[in-house]
Amino acid sequence: MRKIKFRAWNIERRVMYNVGDLTIRKEWIGSNSVNKLDKIGDTIGMNYLNRDKVEFELMQFTGLKDKNGKGIFEGDICLVNDGSVGKKRQVIYSEEKASFMYKIIEDVYSSDFRKLKSELRYIMKYDYMKTSDIEIIGNIHENPELIK
To answer: Distance between alpha carbon 7 and the CA centroid of its chain, in Å?
Structure first.
């Protein structure tokens, strides 16, 4: 069974957190354990957040890991070696396709001169593609320069 995990970007503090048990209600979001990434023992009070006041952006785990064994989340920026153009891509969730996908974030063109920037691609598009073809190089919050 696929493990459902989240991480949270604190918009005000500009810090990424791991999220443990999560409760989502109509008017609030709650968590019993929120730990700052890469900082042992640092926790914050996220037991009762008003949904009208945006303090955190939640990002879901895709269920996949990159070639270094690091979990791939929404918002991650990856280098993808699948033999096509547009190797630098952002992981997004597409409501339309009901799937995690890549958005090409480079100014690249196809063989018929179509601009591919912002084009969506399935993460595991081909049967032969492996997660060893994917490397996380950052994320949209901690490394915004990667998407410019």
So the answer is: 9
